[in-house]
Amino acid sequence: MSDRARKYIVELFKIVGTDSILVIQSNGHLLRLHCPFKVVCRVNVPPLTIGETYNVMAVKMTLKREEVFIIDDRAYFVWFFTIKA
Q: CA 41 to CA 50: how far, in whole Å?
């Protein structure tokens, strides 16, 4: 991991951890969602199915600084889902 990526991740996790995310609501307010929280799958990513609801147990980051949700001990990109708040 590059020093720049490492520094970014260290700074980010001063604000959020692997047990929550920050979401900007449609009214502009900031909301912290703690794990587990529910998401709806937007794409078929076996074994996940479009339209089904899943529990996010943790939030992590790849070495390329892409956020992933941990569902059933597997990592999936966040853009595969819609958050149910």
A: 5
What are the backbone dihedrals phi and psi of residue 7, each rounded to the nearest 5 degrees, phi first?
A: -60, -45
SS (H, E, C) 53-70: EEEECEEEECCCCCEEEE
Beta strands in the chain (DSSP E): 20-24, 30-34, 37-41, 53-56, 58-61, 67-71, 74-77, 81-83
Distance CA 38, CA 53 (A): 6
pTM, full prediction = 0.81
Query: Given pLDDT bands bounded at 50, 70 and 90, which one contains residue 44?
Result: very high
The total of other beta-carbon atoms located within 10 Å of residue 10's CB is 9
Query: What pLDDT is stored for residue 9 in this prediction?
Result: 75
